[in-house]
């Protein structure tokens, strides 16, 4: 079956350092990708997205990189803060035919003071 | 901002009970979804709806049904709750293909 993710279960980062969270996807036909942040007790919150015709997109303190050759997606968080502590997961969207969002299982980011 | 409201944050129900989970959105989005989230399994799609009175099965529809009588409201129904339906249930909406899903804060259901 299709899967998204080769997540490390937990990533610990020192406050102020940069974080890199990785995700692999299996379907080369996927043409849209999203990163979500989920804090404890809350629903997933949209962070940033990227379409397959791009290889990099930047937001506020976050950058998403897409490598279609190896089917790999990463989320970079600059100057990680305590408020960044959460579970992060990627979503892969198949927009041909019946569109379907496929989610990875997530990486827990812990920010160390 | 899109607001997706799930009526209950926590529910405890007994095996065999009929359970209703309600979701309301305020952005006039066409598409609404119900997922369940379990540790190590990620989000799995139960049902989705792309219009009023329309519904499509997702990956794990067994034991569930849905209702969409109004555009803003999408209900998930557990006809006869079982312990293996203990989970976090997330409702989501999107205006269309190729747009992010907007999630509610979830309902944590425990079936005893």
Question: How many distinct helices of chain B?
Answer: 0
Q: Tell me the span between the first and last alpha carbons of chain A.
A: 40 Å
Q: From the helix content, strand content and strand pairing of chain A, which structural class follows?
A: mainly beta
Arithmetic mean pLDDT of chain B: 94
Order of helical and strand elements of chain B: EEEEEEEEEEE
Share in β-strands of chain B: over 45%
Termini gap of chain B: 36 Å
Percent range of helical residues of chain A = under 10%
Rg of chain B, Å, rounded: 13 Å
Helical residues, percent of chain B? under 10%
Describe, in plain words, how this protein is organized in 3D:
The complex is a heterodimer of chains A (113) and B (112). Chain A is an all-beta fold and 113 residues long. Chain A is 0% helix and 52% strand. In chain A, strands 1, 3, 4, 8, 9 and 10 form a 6-stranded mixed β-sheet that branches. Helix content of chain B is 0%, strand content 54%. Chain B has strands spanning 4-6, 10-13, 19-25, 31-38, 42-49, 56-57, 64-70, 73-78, 87-94, 102-103, 107-111. In chain B, strands 2, 4, 5, 6, 9, 10 and 11 form a 7-stranded mixed β-sheet that branches. In chain B, strands 1-3-8-7 form a 4-stranded antiparallel β-sheet, with no helix packed on it. Chain B is globular. The termini of chain B are far apart. Classes of the chains: A mainly beta (113), B mainly beta (112). At the A-B interface, strand 3, strand 4, strand 8 and strand 9 of A face strand 5 and strand 10 of B.
Brief overview:
The complex is a heterodimer of chains A (113) and B (112). With 113 residues, chain A is mostly beta strands. Chain A is built from no helices and ten strands.
Q: Descriptors for this entry?
A:
heterodimer; A: 113 residues; mainly beta; six-stranded mixed beta sheet; B: 112 residues
